């Protein structure tokens, strides 16, 4: 047994090895067959049945968010090559031949051009090659340009972009230590341009920028530190926003825009830090036909200084076509203070009684009598935003604006003695110091006053830490009015930023 067993074991081992080899081969063949089967099934998967137009639309959502170019020192991580090469599209094109054909053959996917020319000359040259490829693949599709440039190294890159200016539909242009006239070759070639964002921070232009004067479709313009009032197709502009931490000189330039605005234009002056403004201000009187004006500012000085600044601004402006007026504090910790006498004079000069339909008072310290006096002159007012002031540095009496007595004054009556008789929407940000039933009385009085059948809109934002308690009977009635289509109601936490 001992002598013959090793030979038998060897035969068993050989047979086991033969069978194991066959098993491995069969397992390998099974894997291949399974992969082949999966591919065959994949040919009929839903994603392969999508129309190419839908697939391309989905691919468009893969684009990364545009990076704001207000950080020339690149404290925000940024890869200029990935952006210029549109790496997200290249990755999609590597999935399969069908996706590659869709990606490469869809010009709209390549029509967003993001160029960081605020780097060294070698990097700029490499970016230019990548941008040229995007220009080719975008064919004749209108372009969205997003470019940052710094010093002379960016000149060649700007020249390449300028060669495509007849295709620009929107342009975000950030220039550091450069003059906007570096793009002078685009003048007269902006036939498709609809929106412009121009940031000339660190190099305000002394001479007026005139390269955007001829742009027949341009309607929206955002400006940051552009210096002298630019030459624009003013009559066709509908939205103008000016951003900056204005000093007195910048403010003069910003207000120099107002006289050029048409009766269909809305203007927003954002980022005004008036803390160091000296009074009186050197702003010349301005007469403007603009339709809407929004001022967003911050004043860290005392309340007297804030009133002087706001009053000084209003004292120099006359706007007889004004339909919408907005005052907004940049910081919840530094509320604005109502310039009563100057506003009354401004309202009289500008005929706000007959025309103003929207008034927005964000974080404004004013007494109830001041507000009542203001609203009593607003017979055309349709939309109103008011709020309590949550800043701890303001006296208790001045913080509470939405009170029982104010709601009673706003409640519509048949003898037409109520404030703002045509009011169709009221938005409030409140500390909830009023009676719930008075709020309901106000709402129901505005639902069908007289012969009016318009739906009333009420938005309430609470500024307390906890959601306020509204009595069940009040909520039930509000829900009934909503279900009847007579009330649009919204209750939510008020965002202070």
Automatic annotation (TrEMBL):
<dbReference type="Pfam" id="PF12937">
    <property type="entry name" value="F-box-like"/>
</dbReference>
<protein>
    <submittedName>
        <fullName>3-beta hydroxysteroid dehydrogenase isomerase family</fullName>
    </submittedName>
</protein>
<keyword id="KW-0413">Isomerase</keyword>
<dbReference type="GO" id="GO:0016853">
    <property type="term" value="F:isomerase activity"/>
</dbReference>
<dbReference type="InterPro" id="IPR001810">
    <property type="entry name" value="F-box_dom"/>
</dbReference>
<feature type="domain" description="F-box">
    <location>
        <begin position="48"/>
        <end position="113"/>
    </location>
</feature>
<dbReference type="InterPro" id="IPR032675">
    <property type="entry name" value="LRR_dom_sf"/>
</dbReference>
């Amino acid at each position: 047994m001992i002598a013959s067993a090793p030979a038998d074991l060897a035969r068993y081992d050989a047979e086991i090895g033969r069978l194991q080899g066959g098993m491995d081969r069969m397992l390998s063949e099974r894997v291949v067959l399974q992969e082949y089967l999966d591919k065959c099934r994949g040919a009929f998967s839903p994603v392969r049945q999508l129309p190419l137009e839908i697939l391309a639309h989905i691919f468009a959502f893969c684009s990364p968010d545009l990076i704001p170019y207000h950080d020339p020192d690149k404290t925000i991580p940024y890869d200029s090559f990935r952006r210029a090469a549109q790496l997200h599209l290249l990755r999609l094109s590597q999935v399969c031949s069908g996706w590659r054909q869709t990606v490469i053959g869809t010009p709209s996917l390549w029509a967003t051009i993001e160029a960081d020319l605020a780097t060294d000359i070698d990097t700029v040259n490499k970016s230019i090659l990548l941008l040229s490829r995007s220009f080719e693949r975008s064919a004749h599709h209108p372009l969205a340009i997003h470019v940052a440039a710094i010093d002379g190294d960016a000149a060649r890159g700007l020249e390449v972009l300028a060669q495509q200016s007849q295709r620009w539909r929107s342009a975000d242009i950030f220039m550091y230590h450069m003059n906007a006239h570096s793009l002078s070759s685009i003048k007269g070639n902006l036939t498709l341009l609809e929106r412009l964002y121009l940031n000339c921070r660190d190099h305000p232009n002394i001479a007026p920028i005139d390269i955007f004067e001829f742009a027949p479709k341009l309607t929206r313009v955002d400006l940051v530190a552009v210096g002298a009032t630019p030459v624009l197709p003013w009559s066709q502009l509908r939205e103008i926003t000016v951003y900056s931490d204005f000093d007195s000189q910048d403010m003069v330039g910003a207000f120099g825009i107002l006289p050029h605005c048409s009766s269909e234009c809305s203007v927003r002056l954002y980022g005004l830090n008036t803390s160091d403004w000296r009074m009186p201000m050197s702003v010349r009187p301005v007469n403007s036909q603009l339709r809407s004006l929004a001022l967003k500012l911050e004043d860290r000085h005392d309340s007297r200084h804030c009133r002087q600044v706001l009053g000084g601004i209003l004292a120099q402006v006359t706007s007889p076509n004004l339909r919408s007026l907005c005052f907004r504090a940049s910081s919840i910790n530094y509320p604005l203070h109502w310039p009563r006498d100057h506003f009354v004079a401004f309202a009289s000069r500008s005929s706000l009684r007959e025309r103003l339909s929207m008034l927005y008072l964000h974080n404004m310290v004013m007494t109830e009598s001041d507000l009542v006096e203001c609203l009593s002159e607003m017979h055309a007012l349709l939309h109103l935003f008011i709020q309590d002031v949550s800043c701890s540095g303001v006296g208790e009496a001045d913080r509470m604006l939405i009170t029982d007595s104010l709601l009673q004054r706003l409640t519509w009556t048949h003898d037409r003695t109520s404030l703002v008789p045509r009011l169709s929407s009221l938005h409030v940000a409140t500390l909830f110091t009023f009676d719930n039933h008075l709020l309901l009385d106000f709402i129901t009085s505005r639902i069908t006053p007289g012969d009016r059948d318009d739906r009333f809109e009420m938005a309430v934002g609470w500024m307390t830490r906890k959601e306020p308690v509204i009595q069940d009977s009040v909520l039930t009635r509000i829900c009934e009015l909503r279900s009847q289509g007579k009330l649009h109601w919204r209750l939510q936490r008020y965002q202070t930023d």
